Amino acid sequence: MTMYCPGHGETLPCSTCADNLARRIEREAAAEPTKEWGKAGAIPLVPENTEGAIFENAIRRMGVHAACEWFGYPAHHEFTVDTIAVLRERSEQAQAATGGAA
Fold first, then answer.
1. Model pTM score
2. Which of 4, 6, 80, 86 could bridge across to 68 with cysteines, CB 3.0–4.6 Å?
3. Does the structure show a pLDDT above 80 at 19?
4. With contact defined as beta carbons under 8 Å apart, do 2 and 49 qualify?
């Protein structure tokens, strides 16, 4: 069965919009715990021994939400949520490797 979807402007299988809505709800739910982590200085810095680490630390200092919004991604966007997760993971790895010192 198909139906016209005003959001897509075309006739689609019934499940398409429901699937898209479910994915959006999942992203927004995943973004909820990241609100605090998206703020300036919330994610610990890493040692600046590469240009990539310097760049990532600039994002940490500025705040992931502000940095991503600068490039057009809102706080609940999948890209923003993924960026927070990656930066947190790299910070945790650096802290484990250096005994907590940045």
1. 0.66
2. 80
3. no
4. no
